[in-house]
Amino acid sequence: MLLLLLLNAAKFSVVFISKMCSRGAFAVVRVATHNKTKIKYAVKEIYTAELNVEQLADLEKEMCILSQLRQSNICGLQEIYKAPNHIYMVILLDEIN
Asked: What is the predicted pLDDT for the residue at 90?
């Protein structure tokens, strides 16, 4: 529910969060579908409360690099949302089956 409210506040006006793709030590990746455009996104939800200073610095580097990548073979970072204990990275989901 928190994720829906967070994304509603920005340009992703109405999204449907469907399933969890993967889970790591500090993050969960979920699939989100924009209700109007039907474009699918991967939303990486990172729990930052337990990260140390070095891990937070690495995360900032990752976000900086991903935000600068502009290449047709790489799924682009669309948005970053920061909350007190979470960071949400919205990435265009390229489903090639």
From this structure: 86
Q: Could you tell me if 33 and 15 are in contact, meaning their C-beta atoms sit under 8 angstroms apart? A: yes
- d(CA 94, CA 13) in angstroms, rounded, equals 21
The CA distance from 89 to 3, in Å, is 11
- pTM attached to this predicted model: 0.74
CA atoms of 55 and 65, how far apart (whole Å) = 15
Nearest to 21 by CA among 5, 39, 44, 47: 44
For residue 62, with 0-12 CB atoms within 10 Å meaning exposed, 13-18 middle and 19 or more buried, which class applies?
A: middle
How far apart (Å, rounded) are the C-alpha atoms in residues 23 and 57?
21
